[in-house]
Write the structure tokens for this entry.
Amino acid sequence: MKKFFRNLFSGYFLILFMLLIELAIVIYVQFFLDDVVLKHVDSESKASLIIALSYIGFKLIAFIIEVIIFFKIINKFEAPDFKTPWIVGMLLLPVFFSVLFLIFANHGLRRRDKRIVKATHQAYRDFFKIKEEKKLDYDHKLGNAVGTFKYINKITELGFHEHNKVYYYKTGEEFFPDMMKYLREAQEFIFMEFFIISDGALWNEVTKILIEKAEAGLDVRLIYDDMGCGGTISAKTPKKLRKHGIKCYKFHPFRPILSGVYNNRDHRKIVIVDHKYGFTGGMNLADEYGNIITRFGYWKDTMVRIEGSAISNLISTFLQNYNLCAGYVSDYKKYLDYEYPIFDEEGFVMPFGDGPGGIDNALIGEQTFINMLHAAKNFAYISTPYLIPTYQLLDAMRNASLRGVEVHLILPGIPDKKMVYMVAESHFPCLLEAGVHIHIYNPGFNHMKTVLVDSELAFVGTINFDFRSLVHHFECGTILYKNPCLKIIEEDFKEMIDKSVLVPANFKLSKRKGRLCSIIKLIEPLL
């Protein structure tokens, strides 16, 4: 019952409730108010004239707003897969889709947030400048992956790193015991950032450790997404933790007002312990991720642990969203001016953050996946829980397969969102036609967002192949090149394929699903 009431008053529920009210108003205005006005306009009373003039004024104002929004849609989006659904929606239900546009269009950042992100960028960029003599060396060493690394570095200016140790976790059962172990060993600071934190065994244990460390004088910081945690933990969590010295914030805390800022969620997952260990990947802090409880069958997800100078990228990425929550720019010198150990391990490591607006409006996650697929020569393995890609990303998968690259796409056998999965299935025919191999993971829900190209180049992170991740959310990930752990990543993919069912090349949606998907695709960028 307690969880029911938490969900009842969560941000998602309140936004849905307000949209339903708006829809009711739209229906009333469009279908009932016309009749009311027509009944009164024939009358010569003063009241009927006021009603008629008010109605005409409302229609005129609504028309002007709709025209303004229509031209904003035309000018705001360049890609047709963003523009077309909004235009069609505006033609069908102009008032309703005007409100949807104001809430769900990619607003980027608020002015205050833009100032903080810009100041954040200025604060860390000098720590990552690559010397000219090193650039030619990197061009040679990075080979076919040089474009992927250079693209991310050009926008984020975070830099890429050699001689780091990287460990790949195949499951939550492997990851969480290690995370707890290193949290207990912390001596200076602990930074944690999650989209979802849920009451349960894992959160109870983490809470104890964080309180103990904060009371011992360590710098403990925790941020989590407010709407992502709607109904999963107490709304009073930050207040409770701050009493123990933990700097805890909700990211974009929900207020019962219609605002586009709620569309930009913090989907990142980052844990940093001192300058020794950095973790990132697809796992939230909830019991299902460690298969302590069962939701949607077996929960498959991945993380990486980084040791070495690449941790500085994770620190910078974490502090960006922490600064947005706290409202000030942290002392970067304190955390980035550090001599990291040099490991014998080969390869390059580049953690990075992605997000709406900020320094550059580029869709970093989308273009990184496209660059990786363009670099592929022999094969590409992709695991994503959601498949609602942009046209450019869908085309990159098709083109890779058509030029002879063996593309394997793994999707959940037990999806968590049935409607979203149905839309994913609508993309199967065009991918299968191009020769993409689509595998359905039988044991349950593969939440992992991992890509591997030619046993050399990999991505492990938080970015799904959908509009939410690619356009609206704050995300993060790590690019790996020629690291020893890539062998384990490849083994993991092959094990998953062995446990999966291959979608037949002649797959077709049923007529009912096809009609429903054609309607749902009007709001595909919102899913």
About this structure: The chain has a mean pLDDT of 85. The chain is about 50% helix and 20% strand. The longest helix spans residues 11-41. The longest strand covers residues 219-225.
